[in-house]
Design brief:
Blueprint lengths: L5 H10 L8 H7 L1 H5 L1 H6 L18 H12 L1 H14 L7 H13 L3 E4 L8 E6 L4 E7 L20 E2 L6 E2 L7 H22 L4 E7 L7 H7 L8 E8 L3 E3 L5 E10 L3 E2 L9 H13 L2 H4 L5 E6 L8 E2 L2 E10 L2 H22 L2 E10 L6 H14 L6 H13 L29 H5 L4 E7 L10 H6 L3 H23 L1 H15 L21 H7 L33
Parallel strand pairs: 3-6, 3-7, 7-15
Antiparallel strand pairs: 1-2, 2-6, 4-5, 8-15, 9-13, 9-14, 10-12, 11-13
Helix pairs in contact: 5-8, 5-17, 6-7, 6-8, 7-8, 8-17, 10-12, 13-17, 13-18, 17-18
């Protein structure tokens, strides 16, 4: 491997926290995963300052026209499917209706559907064709808790409001627009199948229905189980607030809950009670003290208290706190995670509670593919940006105003392809990252909600079932379908993606971050769902029912009883 230029090398070493005397070999040894992602572009001489995306890569063939025409002629079917999933707003791992809706459309268009991938009832693999390159698409369809919102409403107005005199809540909602994500992936897969059929192409299309992406679960376990083996390339997308190809990495992530078990009692006579809530709050406080000296700019951790007690006058004998821990690579995430586990142990000791530590899932950071990003970008330029109406812009501006953001409306252009910055400063995570280490993956983003808004906000839910979301979804389907046909009709493009993938992963052996024998988080499906999908419960290898976690701790004491003072 040639040495990188001095300036680039210095930036690369800084990214790894190494001194100027370190060598490129030191960098690779320190963190080969980061070296394969951000470091690879630096080593191969890609400069963010003078990079220009190549043109003339994408085709404009009859097969692509067939795929595009199918999307256009079936746009109503696609948008109605997406809106149906938006209405269901089913939470992670419980997407009983949403998964069946997607699978039904695929089956009606000649796909063979196999349910229960890696033991997840709502996960499936839909396959069309045989032989040739095997191209994968990914459909997600889970909603988020607390993000219910009426479609097209420009102020926060939950569609589902759950009244409680002491603590009202909102229902679930598609605040990450996964209804659009699944709709576009399904449409693209079917469109490519129509091009294969009409033009005698040789290829296999696989649509992976993924359960529980918002909890970073479904694909992480499925990849570990080999569900994604044998792919030649993957085309993926995500709703966002701009339209652009994605040539970057994401955060690696670990997910776990920490349950503190004590002894309940009356809040008015608390001596001797042992509070699970105390344990959770102590852990949260202890972990906050990590931020200054133990969390790099690329690191993140955040948490939610799951069951903090039902009333102030009952000391809760059980409380769980759920953590996500993120960093720029698996090794870096593991270091931070281990420090947080130590906080949990100390919190249990300080609160005199018993700790039950449950590991849920983990995923690597995304391995981007420059060749794939360039192909997708060329097709995006050829097809054009999503087209928004004046009403779309008015809605976007109203939502932006409501959330205190600049009133710019929807973006009307495609953001140019650019290399990632040399220094990774942290960000989002996805279980699609584990898939990207199995086969070269091309990813894009499409504007499904207004600029200035973050994911996981009610404003995203508001647009995810409107013309704004529909245009993003249909555009993403067209981009992915056209790029997939290019990979079939131009084998050199596919080989270029595979060669880059091989070069990036040289010296890196992917290994799941999920410990062997870990049982994934699961919910028992309704009997009607099992019957309709031909599944039985529990899946092979799953212990059900899950052993209960029950507080059996003794009450505390302030010492031996003393005689009264006379």
């Amino acid at each position: 491997m040639n040495d990188v230029p001095y300036v680039g090398r210095r930036r690369l070493l800084k990214m790894f926290g190494l001194g100027a005397t370190a060598t490129t070999a030191t960098v690779l040894q320190a963190d080969p995963v980061l070296a394969a992602t951000l470091g690879h572009d630096e080593r191969t001489g890609v400069s963010p300052t003078d990079y220009k995306a190549p043109t003339g890569i994408a085709g404009n063939t009859p097969a692509q026209a067939t795929a595009d025409a199918w999307i256009t002629s079936h746009s109503r079917t696609i948008t109605e499917l997406s809106d149906e999933i938006w209405q269901h707003a089913e939470l992670s791992l419980r997407e009983w209706k949403s998964s069946r809706a997607l699978a039904a459309l695929l089956e009606r268009n000649g796909f063979r559907v196999t349910w229960g991938s890696a033991g997840f009832p709502t996960a499936f693999v839909a396959t069309y064709g045989s032989g040739g390159p095997v191209l994968g698409f990914s459909a997600e369809y889970d909603a988020l808790p607390g993000l219910s919102q009426k479609k097209g409403a420009s102020t926060h107005d939950p569609l589902v409001y759950n009244y409680d005199a002491y603590g009202p809540t909102y229902g679930g909602g598609h605040g990450d627009a996964h209804n659009l994500l699944g709709g576009a992936a399904t449409a693209a897969a079917i469109a490519v199948s129509k091009a294969i059929e009409a033009h005698g192409l040789k290829a296999t299309v696989k649509l992976f229905g993924s359960a529980g992406e918002e909890q970073l679960v479904g694909k992480a376990y499925a990849v570990k189980a080999g569900v994604y083996d044998g792919l030649d390339a993957v085309l993926d997308w995500h709703p966002f607030n701009v339209t652009m190809p994605f040539w970057n990495t994401t955060s690696a992530l670990l997910s776990a809950t920490f349950t503190f078990l004590g002894a309940s009692g009356h809040g008015g006579t608390p001596l001797g009670n042992k509070s699970g809530l105390d344990g959770a709050l102590l852990m949260a406080t202890m972990s906050e003290y990590l931020r200054e000296k133990n969390v790099a700019p690329s690191g993140r951790f955040h948490y939610a208290i799951i069951n903090g007690g039902g009333a102030p006058n009952v000391t809760p004998d059980m409380c769980s706190i759920w953590y996500y821990v993120r960093e720029g690579s698996p090794a870096r995430a593991q270091v931070l995670y281990d420090k947080i586990v130590d906080c949990a142990k100390a919190a249990a000791q300080a609160s005199q509670t018993r700790l039950v530590h449950k590991f849920h899932s983990a995923t690597w950071n995304l391995l981007a593919n420059k060749a794939g990003a360039e192909l997708v970008y060329d097709n995006m330029r050829r097809i054009g940006a999503p087209q928004f109406t004046e009403d779309d812009h008015a809605l976007a501006k109203a939502i932006q105003k409501s959330l205190g953001k600049p009133e710019t409306g929807m973006p009307t252009t495609i953001t140019p392809l650019a290399p990632p910055a040399a220094n990774y400063t942290g960000g989002l995570a996805t279980d699609a990252a584990d898939v990207s280490w199995q086969a070269p993956t091309a990813t894009l983003l499409a504007a499904a909600y207004p600029p200035g808004l973050p994911n996981h906000n009610w404003g995203v839910t508001a647009t995810a079932a409107t013309h704004i979301g529909h245009q993003a979804m249909l555009s993403a389907a067209r981009y992915m379908a056209a790029s997939a046909v290019d990979l079939i009709e131009q084998p050199d493009l596919l080989q270029g993606m595979k060669d880059e993938f091989k070069e990036r992963t040289s010296g890196v052996t992917w290994k799941s971050m999920i410990p062997d024998g870990t049982q994934p988080p699961l919910y028992e499906p309704p009997a009607e769902f099992l019957k309709a999908t031909g599944q039985s419960w529990p899946p092979p290898g799953v212990t059900w029912p899950i052993p209960q976690i029950v507080a059996q701790e003794q009450l505390g004491t302030t010492g031996p009883a003393l005689p009264p003072v006379t």
